[in-house]
């Protein structure tokens, strides 16, 4: 049976050493460019070489992150030289989000294993298989999948599956979040997320205040208790989140998952269950230590056993919550007495809380035992009262123990040694580690005149490995005759042997130098196009407001705006009016949706439908490979053709239309404008696509995993609208899509390029696209007419910039 890999985060060299010393199987790290953690202590070219060699010397693997979206100039002018160095040094794989990067790396480094990042939000084996021909050997599945869906993925693909088992969860499907980007210009797709999901919001549903809290902040996941189920689901790699966390965190989590993984393989399924039954206290202790290191409102098991719900959310606190260690039992104006429910240590940090409010924080001077009472002074005037809870947010003893064990001790690898000395023959030292063996030779020894060297003396001298990376697991010595061997010669031989072995172990992973290649630039003739109007609608009233407009050439219908039968009624009416009818597939496409669309193929392939707006690779696989459709495929913004290679790859897959991404500015779009046919000029802009449901959270409920699929709301069925309000009272509309069970959170300001028609037309689009969400019939008609006046009839328009946003069309992202 293949053993599941333990894959640990390394946001610094200390974290990398901690992971290796805690017995990970592999680490994932970022370089100075193109990683999703731009603010981590990432690896420079020199430290990356050191990291690759260190990891390989210890029999581990190193995966490098290039898991962001690249602008065209970055890809064509920087990526090749950046990757070339690490490819030749022997990086084991590269983790990729951008389809253009994937296409580029497979073109120029065809032997480099590529891992499809969770930023691709892959939900099915069918979607993963699309990437097999591009050098992808592993898929990091979307974190929102259930155990059943992962089992299904295992059945549908031969690619390795890597799944997150511990650490932070994003509220949004990874790669589908524009909130940080649109609010503050720091793009999560570029590794610079400002984490607006960890900020407080007020939730209102139908005008009713559902309270204030961290409504977008999930608890961290912890899956130690269900580890056997994860193994049995067919996961190949257990991924631990945390490149921004401390080395001690990395060590603690890595060692815990390594421990219980090894126990499972050692004892088997039945033996492991029996072990847990009789030693449950051991697991509880290990979990308590993980909580002490970092937890966010406690832990959840993520989406493995629950579809979504309030118990997965950390509504009261968005950062480390600590662990309860006592209660205030008595107070005066300036001190309090705390009765301890846990041991505390010198230099621990404790917080006294009233609910979620931190009233007082202090550092412990002297440790004390559980059950004892301790006195702490505080500033007069604080409202400290008996009954208040006391939490520990830093366990100094635990951190010191982890540091001493996994950081301060030098990690060394065991080697085998065999020394041979015989009269008339050169000295020989044979060293081996893993499956590598080397031999080094010294001088021919002289015969001893009086005191021949002994085996004991030889062993003592050869075993002086000092500060090297190795130690002798076994050392055998064969000596024939009475020989004189100078100590200096033994030292030289030992040093040469160790250096040769280490070089052999690290050089094994080196690749041949890549010959310089000229970077091929994809380009197309940018012939002047006749500008047309494409409109996306989500309601019947919006449809009726646009379908008689003579300037509208194409109407895109959200697939869940009505039943499939009604959709074909709509498309027939659209065709009767001489327009193109396009079906927009869901923002999220999972197994239940895939099977539903399969069952309704006859409706979806109706001759009144001209094409599809495709948002995921799973949808592409269904349409192109399963349906073998001949209809037009249009790539939506979330397929992220940020560069020429990305657009070229989509066209290679068979897409006839590509929508320009929303994170490029006018200048960047101008450089590659020939690659795009669609430009969005009006939209509320979806800034988050989430498997969570704010209606469910507002109703204080959880939702278990579901087998079937229904368009009916599972809670608050009569509710019409929901809004999130940030601390500046900006309102973010929330729309629920119950059939596919996801929420879309829209930007607080409408994206509009009404007054920039001249600039947009310079990009030579085939279509301008207007996306409607909750607009009324009158609003829809008014907006459409304004854009037709500006773009088709060339009437000048101005807008109040305080009322709208131009997104990144002018400013761009870093």
UniProtKB/TrEMBL annotation:
InterPro entries: Pept_U32_collagenase, Peptidase_U32, RNA/ubiquinone_mod_enzymes. Pfam families: DUF3656 (PF12392), Peptidase_U32 (PF01136). Residues 390-504 form the Peptidase U32 collagenase domain. This is Peptidase U32.
């Amino acid at each position: 049976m293949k053993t599941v890999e333990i894959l640990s985060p390394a946001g610094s060299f200390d974290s990398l050493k901690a992971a290796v010393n805690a017995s990970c199987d592999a680490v994932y790290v970022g370089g100075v460019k193109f990683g999703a953690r731009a603010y981590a202590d990432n690896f420079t070219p020199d430290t990356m070489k050191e990291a690759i060699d260190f990891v390989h010397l210890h029999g581990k693997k190193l995966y490098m992150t290039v898991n962001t979206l690249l602008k065209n100039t970055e890809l064509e002018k920087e990526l090749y030289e950046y990757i070339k160095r690490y490819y030749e040094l022997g990086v084991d794989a590269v983790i990729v989000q951008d389809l253009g990067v994937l296409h580029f790396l497979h073109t120029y480094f065809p032997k480099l294993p590529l891992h499809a990042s969770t930023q691709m939000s892959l939900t099915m084996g069918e979607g993963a298989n699309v990437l097999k021909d591009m050098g992808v050997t592993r898929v990091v599945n979307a974190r929102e999948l259930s155990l059943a869906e992962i089992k299904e993925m295992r059945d549908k693909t031969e690619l390795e599956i890597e799944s997150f088992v511990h650490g932070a969860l994003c509220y949004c499907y990874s790669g589908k979040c524009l909130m940080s980007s649109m609010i503050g210009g720091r793009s999560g797709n570029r590794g610079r997320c400002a984490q607006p999901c960890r900020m407080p919001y007020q939730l209102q549903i139908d005008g009713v205040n559902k309270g204030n809290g961290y409504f977008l902040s999930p608890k961290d996941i912890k899956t130690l208790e269900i580890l056997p189920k994860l193994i049995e689901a067919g996961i190949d790699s257990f991924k631990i989140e945390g490149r921004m966390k401390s080395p001690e965190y990395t060590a603690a989590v890595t060692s815990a998952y390594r421990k219980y993984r090894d126990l499972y393989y050692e004892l088997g399924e039945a033996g492991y269950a029996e072990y847990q039954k009789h030693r449950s206290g051991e697991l509880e202790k290990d979990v308590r230590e993980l909580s002490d290191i970092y937890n966010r409102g406690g832990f959840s098991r993520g989406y493995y056993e629950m579809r979504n719900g309030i118990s997965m959310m950390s509504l009261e606190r968005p950062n480390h919550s600590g662990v309860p260690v006592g209660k205030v039992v008595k107070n005066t104006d300036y001190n309090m007495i705390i009765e301890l429910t846990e041991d505390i240590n010198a230099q621990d940090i404790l917080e006294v809380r009233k609910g979620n409010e931190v009233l007082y924080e202090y550092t412990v001077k002297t440790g004390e035992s559980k059950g004892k009472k301790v006195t702490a002074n505080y500033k007069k005037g604080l409202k400290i009262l008996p009954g208040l809870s006391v939490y520990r947010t830093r366990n100094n003893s635990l951190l010191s123990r982890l540091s001493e064990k996994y950081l301060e001790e030098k990690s060394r690898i065991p080697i085998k040694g065999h020394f041979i000395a015989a009269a008339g023959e050169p000295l020989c030292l044979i060293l081996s580690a893993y499956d590598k063996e080397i031999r080094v030779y010294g001088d021919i020894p002289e015969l001893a005149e009086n005191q021949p060297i002994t085996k004991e003396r030889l062993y003592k001298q050869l075993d002086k490995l000092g500060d090297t990376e190795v130690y002798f697991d076994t050392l055998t010595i064969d000596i024939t005759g009475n020989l004189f061997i100078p100590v200096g010669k033994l030292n030289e031989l030992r040093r040469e042997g160790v250096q040769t072995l280490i070089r052999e172990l690290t050089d094994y992973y080196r690749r041949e130098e890549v010959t310089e290649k000229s970077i091929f630039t994809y380009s197309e003739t940018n012939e002047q196009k006749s500008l047309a109007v494409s409109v996306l609608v989500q309601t019947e009233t919006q449809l009726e407001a646009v379908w008689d407009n003579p300037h509208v050439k194409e109407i895109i219908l959200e697939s869940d705006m009505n039943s499939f039968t009604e959709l074909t009624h709509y498309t027939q009416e659209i065709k009767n009016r001489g327009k193109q009818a396009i079906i927009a597939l869901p923002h999220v496409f999972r197994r239940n949706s895939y099977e539903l669309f399969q069952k309704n193929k006859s409706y979806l392939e109706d001759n009144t439908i001209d094409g599809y707006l495709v948002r995921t690779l799973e949808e592409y696989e269904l349409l192109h490979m399963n349906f073998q459709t001949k209809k037009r495929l249009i790539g939506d913004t979330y397929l992220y053709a940020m560069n020429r290679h990305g657009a070229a790859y989509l066209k290679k897959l068979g897409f006839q239309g590509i929508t320009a991404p929303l994170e490029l500015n006018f200048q960047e779009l101008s450089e590659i404008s020939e690659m795009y046919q669609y430009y969005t000029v009006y939209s509320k802009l979806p800034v988050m696509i989430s498997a969570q449901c704010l209606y469910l959270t507002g109703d204080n409920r959880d939702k278990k995993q579901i087998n079937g699929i229904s368009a009916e709301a599972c809670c608050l069925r009569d509710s019409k609208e929901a809004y999130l309000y940030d601390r500046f009272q900006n309102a973010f509309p929330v729309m629920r899509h119950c059939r596919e069970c996801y929420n879309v959170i829209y930007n607080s300001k409408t994206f509009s390029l009404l007054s920039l028609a001249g600039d947009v037309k310079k990009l030579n689009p085939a279509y301008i696209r207007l996306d409607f969400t909750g607009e009324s019939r009158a609003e829809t008609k008014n907006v459409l007419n304004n854009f037709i006046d500006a773009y088709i009839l060339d009437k000048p328009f101005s807008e109040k910039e305080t009322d709208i946003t131009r997104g990144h069309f002018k400013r761009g992202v870093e």
